[in-house]
Structure formats: C-alpha cells, structure tokens
Amino acid sequence: GRENLEAVQFLKDMNTVMHGEFPGTMTVADEYRMEEIAVTAGASGAGQTVGDIRGGAFIVAVRTAAGEFQASPSADAVLAVGDTVMAIGTSKTLVRLEQLFDPPTAR
C-alpha cells in the first residue's frame, strides 16, 4: 500500500543523496553497496587475478589504466597498477578489497 510506496521513494531519494555525496559508492541494498577501487603501486592485489582477489565480493567491471572498460571480467583477468575495480559486496568484503589495493604505506 501507501507505506510501501513511501519506503520505495525514500530508498530512491537516499540513493540520489548518497551518489551525490559519495560518487564512487552506490547503495544497492541495505547490506550491499557498489564501489570503485583503484589498483595502486605496491599494493598486494596488484598483479593478481580477479579470481584471486574477489573473495565474497562480485567484481562487476574493470576499467584499465588505458581506459578500456571490461564488463564482467573473467576470473583470470590480471589487475594492473592504474586499473579501477568496480565491485559489489557487503561492507566487510569491500573493506577487504580496499586493503588489497591500498598503497603499502597506508597498510
């Protein structure tokens, strides 16, 4: 009924605000979000494959350092410095991914 329509509108409004405040993050559902994570020099995830790093997250796409967009990259796609990984997951799985791509001094 009306309560459901109000809840749906609230979620739409919240997604709009979140995207405006945090352009690299998008709310997908309460427990999931989408994030872009840069592959930095010296990061432990650099040079690994999508299959090696994904853990519980879903890797939606990779934008290579050269600007090529790879939707649904294969598990054997190698991630290079300068690439950007687009992933969906829970806060816990995305924090894990972020840590894999943090520069060595940030760990």
Topology:
Elements: H1 2-21, E1 25-29, E2 32-38, H2 50-53, E3 58-63, E4 69-71, E5 84-89, H3 91-101
Antiparallel strand pairs: 1-2, 2-5, 3-4, 3-5
Strand arrangement within the widest β-sheet reads: 1-2-5-3-4
Reported for the largest beta sheet, the result is:
5 strands, antiparallel
* Sequence of secondary-structure elements: HEEHEEEH
Beta strand count: 5
| Low-confidence spans | none
Percent in strands: 25-35%
N-to-C span: 49 Å
Give the overall silhouette.
elongated
**Helical proportion?**
25-40%
Radius of gyration: 16 Å
Structural class, judged by helices and strands?
Answer: alpha+beta
Average per-residue pLDDT, rounded, comes to 83
Helix segment count? 3
Question: Care to describe what's here?
Answer:
This protein has 107 residues and is α+β, with helices and mostly antiparallel strands. Helices cover 33% and strands 25% of the residues. It is built from 3 helices and 5 strands, in the order H-E-E-H-E-E-E-H. A hairpin with a 5-residue loop joins strand 3 and strand 4. The radius of gyration is 16 Å and the shape is elongated.
Quick description:
By secondary structure, the chain is an alpha+beta fold. It has helices spanning 2-21, 50-53, 91-101, and strands spanning 25-29, 32-38, 58-63, 69-71, 84-89. The chain has 3 helices and 5 strands; from the N terminus they run H-E-E-H-E-E-E-H.
Features:
single chain; 107 residues; alpha+beta; 5-stranded antiparallel beta sheet; 3 helices; 33% helix; 25% strand
